[in-house]
# Entry
Amino acid sequence: MSYNIYIAGSFSNEQEKKDIYSLIDKVRKIHPNAELFIPMEHFVEGGNEKDNEGNYIMSNQEWGRRVYEMDINALNQANEVIAIYRGRISGTGTAFEIGYAVAKGIPVTVYVPDEVDITSCMVMNGATIVISNKINEQK
# Structure
């Protein structure tokens, strides 16, 4: 049976993507045989297809439902969730993934970047492990 790790974190700009890939490199060194689910590397089949006029064929609602189902399925298979949490500016998807994992009893490790000053007591106390140089809190 494989060990599955869900990598959570926003990836809406280049810095966030860089941080995610840095985290992935670290996780792969610690868990070389683990299966990683990295949401930004998974796509909904047909989600980017356009018609001859340049309009998306799939509605945003349908695309969103399929992304949700794909991510929930991966979370349900995860033995662990590892997330980059950016405090109050963290993406709502990341906060949802952390909360979902906590509710399901899946261990959550939260990495808080150095530039983050304000976090959520819900995320910080729900996580199994918090790693932060600045906040200096590790459970």
In short: The mean pLDDT is 89. Helices lie at 14-30, 60-77, 92-104, 121-126. The radius of gyration is 16 Å.
